[in-house]
Amino acid sequence: MENVIENKVAEYLLQIKAIKLQPANPFTWASGWISPIYCDNRKTLSYHEVRTYIRDSFVEVIRKNYPDVELIAGVATGAIAHGALVAEAMGLPFVYIRAEAKKHGLENLVEGEVKPGQKAVVIEDLISTGGSSLKAFNALKESGAVVLGMAAIFSYQFPVAQKNFDEAGCKLVTLSNYHALTNFALQTGYIDATHTETLAKWRTSPDTWGK
């Protein structure tokens, strides 16, 4: 079933252009990295069929991997809506985690009520190096939750991300990933075989590729 979800999510992301693959005409990310792929999973919210499939897939993988979950947390801003949809479907409370603490009031990083020892799963829209995602993971732990792990729509599968998650002790499951996406894109003719080596080289060294 996991392969079915991986492939279907990959299909949807390409279909609605939430992910674009352009090996011959790469993008420049905000970080300065040059990349043959661009991902904006916020676009999935504009399509009822897509966001519903993502919601239901999240529910399925969370029940399988984190059966003791008591709280759903979404990472701002891209995963707030997805997290709320998942929490609603599972009948669970919801909080969200800011990228930065508020400059006034209680200066919260976590918005909503977290009960001490509450078992939580973090919802994320995209995993790149894992830096911002693990910052959210740590903020939720510091708020008193027992964080079981994280579930994300898509991961670039950078080796550094896996290292960072392992070192943080954070379990990660994703609905789809770079390997599934590029395989699907090749099988369906979205890209041709001449691009696969380019895409593979980029993933192993994204910070230096194209420079």
Question: Care to describe what's here?
Answer:
- The protein is an alpha/beta fold and 211 residues long.
- It has one domain: Rossmann fold (3-Layer(aba) Sandwich).
- It has seven helices and ten strands.
In short:
The protein has helices at residues 2-15, 48-65, 80-90, 131-142, 159-168, 178-187, 193-204; strands spanning 19-21, 27-28, 34-35, 37-39, 71-75, 94-97, 110-111, 119-127, 146-155, 172-177.
List keywords for this structure.
two-stranded antiparallel sheet; Rossmann fold; 211 residues; 10 strands; 41% helix; 22% strand; alpha/beta; 6-stranded mixed β-sheet
List the helices and strands and how they pair.
Elements: H1 2-15, E1 19-21, E2 27-28, E3 34-35, E4 37-39, H2 48-65, E5 71-75, H3 80-90, E6 94-97, E7 110-111, E8 119-127, H4 131-142, E9 146-155, H5 159-168, E10 172-177, H6 178-187, H7 193-204
Parallel strand pairs: 5-6, 5-8, 8-9, 9-10
Antiparallel strand pairs: 1-4, 2-3, 6-7
Low-confidence residue ranges: none
Largest β sheet strand count, sense and barrel closure: 6 strands, mixed
Total domain count: 1
Computed structural class: alpha/beta
Oligomer: single chain
Question: What is the mean predicted local confidence, pLDDT?
Answer: 93
CATH class: Alpha Beta
> Order of strands across the biggest sheet?
7-6-5-8-9-10
